[in-house]
Design goal:
The chain is mainly alpha-helical. Helices cover 82% and strands 0% of the residues. It has one domain (2-260). The longest helix has 33 residues, at 130-162.
Length: 261
């Protein structure tokens, strides 16, 4: 029966991702914790889940040429080393997952709160002339590199500790750096950075810390992949913005709980 619950959990998150674009770590990790999994297992398993579920979307954006690869490279230059350093510090400093339980709990709470605030107050980028946007962003490439690197390092640490933030928080950072970049390119760039980051962090949790339940991962994917495909067909008929606000409010409450208690 437990397998059925896990498949249903994957399906629930998959439906939410398909309908609203929100999900992944911000919903899956708290859901797994509610199902009774330890924080470290929920986080490690969710990181690999995110990497696998977002891979096909990354390939699609790459084929459509809706990825700013220079931004991905600079984000990854900060995030990948930061993730590896975080994993090695956890491995070398603590003998058991219970010893860094508080770090994971607080990190998860902070990232849930930040993600919820982004979802509540972020506004879609206005429609712009693509040629003008490209020209503006080309002029900002040199000045954006240090910001992208520092942002990537921040995401590398906290995504590794919480599995949350590789999506909504990174998208908000990109919108701030490139305010005239079309929303589709923001999304493609965001996903294309999230895949290698969550993959590296997830493999690190698996090999270095033993924080991944592979059976659970298989069940989640079995439920979520068909659900994502099905729900994307329904997305145009649903009030996605209202659903996002409801989810954001729920994430805010859960984040405050993890931070304060």
């Amino acid at each position: 029966m437990d397998f059925i619950y896990y498949i249903m959990a994957g399906g629930l998150v998959g439906l939410t991702i398909g309908l609203t674009g929100v999900g992944g770590g911000s919903l899956m990790t708290p859901l797994l914790i509610l199902l009774g999994f330890p924080y470290n297992v929920a986080i490690g398993t969710d990181l690999l889940y995110a990497a696998i579920t977002k891979s096909s979307a990354m390939l699609g954006h790459a084929r459509k040429k809706t990825v700013e690869w220079h931004a991905v490279r600079w984000l990854a230059a900060g995030s990948i080393p930061a993730s590896l350093i975080t994993l090695l510090l956890l491995q070398q400093t603590y003998q058991d997952a219970t010893e860094y339980h508080v770090i994971l709990t607080r990190s998860l709470g902070v990232m849930l709160v930040l993600t919820s605030l982004v979802l509540l107050f972020n506004r879609p980028a206005p429609a712009v002339d693509l040629a003008q946007a490209a020209a503006d962003d080309a002029r900002s490439h040199s000045t954006s590199k240090p910001i992208l690197f520092a942002s990537g390092a921040f995401l590398g640490v906290f995504v590794t500790l919480s599995s949350v933030g590789a999506g909504a928080l990174c998208a908000a950072i990109l919108m701030w750096i490139y305010p005239r970049l079309p929303a589709l390119r923001i999304l493609g760039t965001d996903i294309s950075h999230a895949v290698p980051l969550t993959l590296v962090a997830g493999i690190g949790h698996l090999l270095l810390l033993g924080n991944v339940d592979l059976t659970l991962l298989a069940c989640l994917l079995l439920g979520s992949l068909p659900a994502i495909h099905f729900s994307t067909q329904l997305a145009a008929k649903m009030p996605a913005d209202l659903l996002k606000k409801c989810i954001a409010s729920m994430l805010l409450l859960m984040g405050l709980k993890f931070v304060l208690f």
